Amino acid sequence: MINFNYETDFKLDNEDAIAGWLGNVITSENKKEGEINYIFCDDEYLHKINVEYLDHDTLTDIISFDYSMGNELHGDIFVSVERVKDNAADFNVSFQEELKRVLVHGIMHYCGYKDKGEVEELLMRSKEDEKIAMFHVEQ
After folding, report:
1. For 2-138, which CATH class?
2. CB count in 10 Å sphere of residue 62
3. How far is CA 70 from the centre of its chain?
4. Is-above-0.70 flag for pTM?
5. Rounded to whole angstroms, how far apart are CA atoms 55 and 63?
6. Which of 52, 69, 80, 106 has CA atoms 20 to 30 A from the CA of 30?
7. Could you report the per-residue pLDDT of 27-45, keeping only the tens digit for each?
8. What is the arrangement of strands in the sheet containing 2-6, beginning at the earlier edge strand?
């Protein structure tokens, strides 16, 4: 089950469509959907988590905590709506497009994809693009 929680004024317009898409993404990676919680927040909220749990004193758009068991995906994914807006402007894409990228990015981590090195990052971007394209087909 995919849940959406809000620690900011932001709210998704299409929770059911997003949850359905993310469920299809999980299935397309031969994984099972467990309980995944998205928590939408602001920079300050996510920065505190980054410092407290990861010892990183930086702003970020997403932090995911993976509690998966075998092929069943579980976890908490924190998303800074402020970072997503800024990144969308920086990358010259719509807010909705950047939001989809961030949402699927967390799932891709749970599926075992990394983004620390250049090769890993290229594969991650490729997988994100592939999964974002799945959303457009379903609408």
Report:
1. alpha beta
2. 18
3. 20
4. yes
5. 12
6. 80
7. 999 999 999 999 999 999 9
8. 2-6, 32-41, 72-80, 62-66
